[in-house]
Every structure is written in structure tokens, then in C-alpha cells.
């Protein structure tokens, strides 16, 4: 009843104080939300709003139109004898690559296999830059073969393609210059590190003056408007951190960097057998660590191991502190320490609180766990005990039984006489095999056999 | 000033202006809800953003019969639960034993003695599992059976987590009380 009342008090406290509380969210929450909303709406079909489906429609229409143009264009090519650069080049960014394509197109068209050409140009328009360049290397080698196999190209053909390639290389060089100029531009900010282990804490230092306004996007959904924000990446992955700087004169600059947060391994292990007795048992270590490529074990007795799942035998009993450090392939580390690994494991001693002595006479006190079903001997249940001393006192403090042998309990007799039923005090001292000492005391009731 | 009905109709049409008005009107209230389920302000704002996304995209489902603010709150609570599930594997699990402590002898806590900020802080510091159960049971008023279903845990787990959460909270309230009264004494 009291607990119920207390519970209600606690609930009321939180309900009354926290319900309908209003907290003003930061401005970044709203801008972030609107950005996410825009993105999400873009990905859904909502009539009356520009979205991916409309975009898809436009792209599909454009592609269809382009395909028709290319197709009719190549038809024209055949008719007008390889006189113009194929339109596919307009879509290429890397001109050294496209050179081969155009050459090939030229040559293959010469050999009259116009269908393949179309396939290749259509494909290469779709591929990304990287894929395309590897593709083109293949095409290049293929094309060389073509030339070797077909040694019969007329000289005018070759000069034609060479002059064209020169033209293209020039244009390509211009474009490359332009590109490198763009790339040479100073980045707007400097991260303290660009990669590391999670949780990865990075400070971003912007190079712009403080009069500008800053909009950071950390690539994991986080935003900031600070000048030099600090951000922690908790989850591994690659994040594109973008900084938008709005200068006081209204001009904008944008710059981004990629941050790689490597996953952190988790060190976990278990030992077998579970209730190991030291030093008797050899310990098998089971490694449950995640994404670990390297493990370092310290067994606490000076020994160490680099194995993933080592075995170890301790020379003497004691309390050992076991340490496991694991490293991921990126060098991220985690460790786990097990202090007093074998404290109490597998070692215990407990006594019953009553027994019924055999009324027929002293039995000597020796027992076994199978024969003592009638509980006529007072003795402990135990494991891993090395030293042992049991003493039993009467209520008046007289020592009536003493044993240094754990296999000998008390049979309930003192000087050949069966003791009175009642309460007696027992006290035990000793140590376990792992070196840990124990002292226990308690009372026991001597019961009379009712038969 | 637009009425709730007009705002809802505008949002259903994805009218950006109506969405902004809805946000400006209710974000403070909903952040108050979200903060109870989060470890910090940043996480609360994350939950708030996700809640609003959900609200904007499912506002057509709002029947218009019940209380609108109640519906908003429910969406926020459900988002917090989703968030909890999503983040579960990244959280540091705090061993329950660390938190088991004797119940304090104090039987009641004065409402006026604590500020909302302090209570928020206590909730924020709770282990995530405790926080969910405590919020849902004590403040939202769900039954343990419902909580078990929402969180995908056993009913008994919900009950025991609640009672542990309560023990931790009581202890923290008590510590806070001692601190505060010492402070006012020394003044």
C-alpha cells in the first residue's frame, strides 16, 4: 500500500512537472527539418511538387530523345563518311579516354560494324567516370587488336583519326588545366583529422573571417552554425562534411571534405571451464570480440599471447587480472579487463543448519556424499578447499568437536555420549586452493531421532 | 492566425507555409515530449525532426475527431520508440547491477522543490531502457502489457525495469534534495 502511494507521488511529480512543458528548439533543428523534408518530398510522388518521379520522366524523355538522335546520327554518319565527331563526346568529361572511343567508333564504323559502336557509346554515357575509364582501357586494347587483325586500313583513314585525336587532346588539355585550377582553390576549412576510430571527435577549423555566416552539414544528419564546430561521429562510415560560407557581401562559397570513421571493435571473452580451479585446470580462452584482426592477451601472471584464442595454465593459485586488447584492421582498439579472474570461482564451502545423529552410537564422523542420505553427520558441502579446521561449541562455549580433516564431520557424540538436542555453534577456518582464505560461523540444531 | 483545421488541410497538400506554421506552433511542445526520451538535447532534436517528418507525411491519417495535440504527441512518442530501437545496438549498455540500490527512506517528494530542468536531467541520465519504460508507464500512462508490446520486451521485464528505474530516480531525487537543502542552509 505504501509503495503504491509512493509510486503515485513519483508519477505525479513527473507528470505535473514535465507534461506540457514547452522547450524552444534551436534554429538549426528547423532548417535541418526543412531540408530533410525537401529531400523526402522529392523522393515521393506528390502532385504539384517537383519530385523524383517528374525528374525521372524528364530524364527518360531526354534519354529517349538522345537515343533517337544518336541512332539517326549514326545513320547519317554512314552516309556522310565519318565527317563529324560523334555526339557522345559531348557527355564525356575525360577527353583522353574519349579519344579512344571516338577513334574506335571511327575504325569500327569503317569496318562496318556500326551496331557495336552504338552499344558502346550508349553504355559509356551511362557509366561513372571510374568505371568508364576501366571500360575504355578494355576498349583500347580491343581496338588495338582490331587494328592488328585488320591490317588493311587505308592510310587516309589513319591520318584522319590521328588529326582528330590531336584536336581532342588539345581540348582535353585545356579542360584539364581548368579542372586543376578549380582544384587548386584553397579549401574553406581544415578538419583536425580526416579519419579515425569511432567515436571520432573532430574539430573543423574554417579559414574564413568571423563576419561570415557558416552552415555546416556533417553528413550524418547533423548541422551546425558555429565557426569552428566540434563534432563526434559515433557510427562508423564515410561522411561528407560540407561547409557553406555566406560572406557579408552576399557571396557564397562551398567546400567539402570526406571523413572516415572506422568501426571500433568490442573486446569480449569467456573462459572455460567456467568454475576453473587454479592451478589445476588449464584455461581455454574463448574470444567473442567483434571485428578484431589482432588480439593481445595478458594473463596476469606475466605471460602474454597474441593468439586469437589461447590456452593458458597458471603455475600457482592466486588472483589474476586478465586483460584482452583487440585491434581492428584500421588499428582501432578496445580492451577488457577481468579483475580477480578466479576469485571464488569454483570454490565454496557451506554448512547445513541441522542434523539428526545416529542414536545407535558414535560413527566416527566419516561420510561420503552418497551414503549420508539420512544426514546423520554434520559436514559441509564444498569445492576447492585446501586447508580446513572445523570447531563446534556448545551453547556454553565448551569446545565439543574439532576436525582438521574435511572428510570427517561431527557424528553428534561427545566423549562417547550422544549430545543433547538443541542449538550448537560451528566455526570454520581455512583457505581455498586459489589462496583465498575463508572464515565462517553459524549455528546448527541437533535434532533427536523421532523413531 | 490560421486554425488547426486550416493548418492540417494545408499540410495535407504539402503546403510549405502550413508546414512551417505547424512547426512553429507545436515544436516547443513536442520537444518537451522528445526530451524526456533522449539522452541529450541533440538527440531530442533528432527525434523532433523525425517526428515532424512523420507528421507531415501522415497528417492525412489524422481523423480529425480526436485531439490534434494528442495525436501529435502520440506520433512523437512512437518516433522516440523507433529511435530507441534503431539506436539500441549503438548504446553503451549499463550494467543493471550498477544501479541497484536500496530504496531511500523518503516517502514523498515535494513538487515545488524540483525544477523541470532537474527532472529532465534525471530522465536523460537514466539508462535508455529504464527511461523508455518509465516515460511510457509513469507519464504516458501505458499499461505494462502495452509497453512490452511497443518495446518488444517481456511484460515482466517492463515491470522490473520500471521498478528499478523508480529506485534510481528516487535515489537521484533524494541526492538532489540533500544537495539543495545543504546549499540553502549554507546560505
Gist of the model:
The complex is a heterodimer of chains A (451) and B (187). Chain A has helices spanning 2-18, 27-43, 52-80, 95-111, 114-126, 129-149, 155-184; strands at residues 189-191, 195-197, 200-206, 213-217, 223-224, 230-233, 237-246, 252-262, 269-272, 282-287, 294-298, 304-305, 311-313, 322-327, 333-338, 348-350, 354-355, 381-383, 385-393, 399-403, 413-414, 417-418, 422-432, 437-446.
Which key features would you list for this structure?
heterodimer, A: 451 residues, alpha+beta, Immunoglobulin-like, 4 domains, 5-stranded mixed sheet, 7 helices, 24 strands, B: 187 residues, mainly alpha, 8 helices, 70% helix, globular
Structure description:
Chain A is α+β, with helices and mostly antiparallel strands and 451 residues long. Helix content of chain A is 32%, strand content 27%. Chain A has four domains: 88-139 and 147-183, no CATH class; 189-262, Sandwich (Immunoglobulin-like), CATH 2.60.40.10; 269-338, Immunoglobulins (Immunoglobulin-like, Sandwich); 348-446, Immunoglobulin-like (Sandwich). The radius of gyration of chain A is 42 Å and the shape is elongated. The two termini of chain A are 47 Å apart. The model of chain A is unreliable at 80-173 and 178-184 (pLDDT under 50). Chain B contains eight helices and no strands. In chain B, helix 2 (16-36) crosses helix 3 (41-58) and helix 6 crosses helix 8. Residues 94-104 of chain B have low confidence and may be disordered. Chains A and B meet through helix 1 and helix 2 of A and helix 2, helix 3, helix 5, helix 6 and helix 8 of B.
Amino acid at each position: 500500500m505504501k509503495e503504491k502511494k509512493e509510486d503515485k507521488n513519483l508519477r505525479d511529480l513527473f507528470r505535473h512537472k514535465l507534461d506540457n512543458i514547452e522547450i524552444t528548439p534551436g534554429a538549426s533543428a528547423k532548417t535541418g527539418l526543412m531540408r530533410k523534408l525537401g529531400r523526402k518530398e522529392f523522393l515521393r510522388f506528390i502532385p504539384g511538387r517537383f519530385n523524383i518521379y517528374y525528374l525521372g520522366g524528364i530524364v527518360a524523355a531526354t534519354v529517349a530523345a538522345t537515343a533517337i538522335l544518336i541512332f539517326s546520327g549514326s545513320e547519317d554518319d554512314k552516309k556522310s563518311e565519318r565527317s563529324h565527331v560523334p555526339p557522345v563526346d559531348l557527355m564525356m568529361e575525360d577527353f583522353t579516354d574519349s579519344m579512344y572511343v571516338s577513334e574506335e567508333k571511327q575504325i569500327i564504323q569503317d569496318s562496318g560494324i556500326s551496331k557495336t559502336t552504338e552499344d558502346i557509346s550508349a553504355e559509356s554515357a551511362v557509366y561513372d567516370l571510374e568505371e568508364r575509364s576501366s571500360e575504355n582501357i578494355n576498349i583500347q586494347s580491343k581496338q588495338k587488336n582490331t587494328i592488328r587483325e585488320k591490317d588493311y586500313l587505308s592510310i587516309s583513314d589513319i591520318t584522319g583519326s590521328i588529326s582528330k585525336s590531336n584536336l581532342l587532346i588539345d581540348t582535353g588539355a585545356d579542360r584539364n588545366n581548368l579542372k586543376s585550377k578549380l582544384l587548386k582553390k584553397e579549401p574553406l576549412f581544415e578538419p583536425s583529422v580526416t579519419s579515425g576510430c569511432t567515436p571520432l571527435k573532430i574539430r573543423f577549423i574554417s579559414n574564413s573571417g568571423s563576419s561570415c555566416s557558416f552552415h555546416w552539414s556533417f553528413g550524418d544528419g547533423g548541422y551546425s552554425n558555429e565557426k569552428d564546430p566540434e563534432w563526434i561521429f559515433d557510427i562508423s562510415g564515410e561522411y561528407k562534411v560540407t561547409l557553406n560560407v555566406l560572406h557579408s557581401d552576399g557571396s557564397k562559397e562551398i567546400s567539402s571534405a570526406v571523413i572516415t570513421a572506422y568501426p571500433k571493435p568490442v573486446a569480449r571473452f569467456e573462459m572455460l571451464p567456467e568454475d576453473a580451479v587454479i592451478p589445476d585446470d588449464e584455461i581455454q580462452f574463448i574470444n567473442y570480440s567483434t571485428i578484431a584482426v589482432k588480439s593481445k592477451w595478458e594473463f596476469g601472471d606475466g605471460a602474454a599471447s597474441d593468439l586469437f584464442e589461447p590456452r593458458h595454465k597458471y603455475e600457482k593459485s592466486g588472483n589474476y587480472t586478465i586483460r584482452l586488447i583487440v585491434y581492428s584492421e584500421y588499428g582501432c582498439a578496445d580492451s577488457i579487463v577481468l579483475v580477480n579472474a578466479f576469485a571464488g570461482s569454483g570454490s565454496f564451502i557451506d554448512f547445513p543448519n541441522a542434523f539428526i545423529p545416529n542414536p545407535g552410537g558414535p560413527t566416527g564422523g566419516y561420510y561420503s556424499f552418497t551414503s549420508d542420505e539420512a544426514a546423520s553427520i554434520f559436514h559441509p558441502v564444498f569445492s576447492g578447499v585446501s586447508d580446513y579446521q572445523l570447531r563446534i561449541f556448545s551453547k556454553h562455549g565448551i569446545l565439543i568437536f574439532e576436525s582438521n580433516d574435511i572428510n570427517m564431520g561431527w557424528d553428534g557424540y561427545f566423549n562417547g555420549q550422544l549430545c543433547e538436542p538443541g542449538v550448537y555453534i560451528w566455526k570454520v577456518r581455512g583457505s581455498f586452493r586459489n589462496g583465498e582464505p575463508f572464515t565462517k560461523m553459524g549455528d546448527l540444531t541437533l535434532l533427536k531421532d523421532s523413531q | 492566425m490560421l486554425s488547426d483545421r486550416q493548418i492540417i488541410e494545408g499540410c495535407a497538400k504539402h503546403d510549405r507555409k502550413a508546414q512551417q506554421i505547424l512547426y512553429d506552433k507545436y515544436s516547443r511542445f513536442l520537444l518537451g515530449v522528445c526530451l524526456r526520451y533522449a539522452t541529450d538535447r541533440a538527440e531530442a532534436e533528432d527525434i523532433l525532426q523525425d517526428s515532424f517528418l512523420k507528421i507531415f507525411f501522415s497528417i492525412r491519417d489524422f481523423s480529425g475527431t480526436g485531439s490534434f495535440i494528442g495525436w501529435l504527441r502520440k506520433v512523437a512518442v512512437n518516433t522516440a520508440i523507433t529511435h530507441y530501437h534503431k539506436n539500441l545496438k549503438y548504446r553503451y549498455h549499463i550494467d543493471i547491477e550498477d544501479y541497484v540500490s536500496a530504496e531511500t527512506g523518503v516517502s514523498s517528494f515535494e513538487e515545488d522543490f524540483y525544477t523541470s530542468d532537474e527532472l529532465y536531467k534525471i530522465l536523460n541520465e537514466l539508462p535508455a531502457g529504464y527511461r523508455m519504460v518509465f516515460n511510457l508507464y509513469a507519464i504516458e500512462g501505458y499499461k505494462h502489457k502495452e509497453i512490452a508490446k511497443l518495446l518488444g520486451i517481456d511484460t515482466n521485464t517492463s515491470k522490473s525495469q520500471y521498478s528499478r528505474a523508480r529506485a534510481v530516480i528516487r535515489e537521484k531525487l533524494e541526492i538532489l534534495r540533500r544537495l539543495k537543502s545543504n546549499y540553502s542552509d549554507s546560505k
